[in-house]
Amino acid sequence: MTPDVLAALTEARAAKRPVVLATKLPSGEQILLPDPKASPELAAAGARALQRDETGTVKLADGDWFLHVHNPPPRLIVVGAVHIAQALVPMAALLGYAVTVVDPRRSFATDERFPNVSVSSDWPDEAMDRLAPDARSAVVTLTHDPKLDDPALDRALKSPAFYIGALGSRKTHAARLKRLRDLGHDEAALARIRGPVGLAIEAVTAPEIALSILAEIVAVRRGAPLVQPAPATRDAA
């Protein structure tokens, strides 16, 4: 690895910027993607590798390339420090997500209830502005309180977050969508919200609901086909 490539890789990792170190086989020629000097085919292969989080060898027209993905960890922003969140957070951490719990209610958002996790007591709109969800971010709202959930969803819909989910029954979700329409969001934007949140696995308990949410996040991230939406009765917190 040349000093220039090493310096660029070190800088990208420090800035948590997703990059791919592409090495041509067997010559050892290297390029850090994305790079405007890369061929369109190599650039596309690098973009696919980043999206899929897949390190490995690809066969291109000009030969074999080993693509080493350097992605920052995916993020999960949970709005609402409720019981489901207490089950969801450790599960997400086990899957490598960097988790932040947002809840201005200080009796809920405590280090005791969420040990070893970033906890924000800012109002959700302020927290979301600071956290700036990107294409590797998932956002889940769990409070059932429009004063907390709606500002977070409003900000999430204005971001490239790959997953947006909101807890609540279909009736609750319909009312939520009306409020978000009033904030100026069109139908295409509103269709991004998974509501009722989670895969339809007949979940009842808080851990089961947390599992269904995380399973749906993984399915969306990996591009897996999804089953029908969760039952209308899901309204627990």
Describe the fold and architecture.
- This protein is of the alpha/beta class and 237 residues long.
- The protein folds into 2 domains: 68 residues, no CATH class; 148 residues, 3-Layer(aba) Sandwich (Rossmann fold).
- The strands form 2 sheets. It has a 6-stranded parallel β-sheet, with helices on both faces. The chain has a 4-stranded antiparallel β-sheet with strand order 2-1-4-3.
- A hairpin with a 4-residue loop joins strand 1 and strand 2.
- Helix 3 crosses helix 8 and helix 4 packs parallel to helix 5.
- 36% of the residues are buried.
- About 3% of the residues have low confidence.
Q: How many discrete structural domains?
A: 2
Q: Cα distance, first to last residue?
A: 51 Å
Number of helices: 8
Helix content: 25-40%
What is the SS-derived class? alpha/beta
Order of helices and strands: HEEHEEEHEEHEHEHHEH
- β-strand percent reads 15-25%
Number-wise, the strands total: 10
Largest sheet: 6 strands, parallel
CATH architecture assignment name of the largest domain? 3-Layer(aba) Sandwich
What value does the average pLDDT take? 92
> What is the CATH topology of the largest domain?
Rossmann fold
CATH class of the largest domain: Alpha Beta
CATH superfamily of the largest domain, by name, is NAD(P)-binding Rossmann-like Domain
| Low-confidence blocks of residues | 228-234
The general outline is elongated
The rounded Rg comes to 20 Å
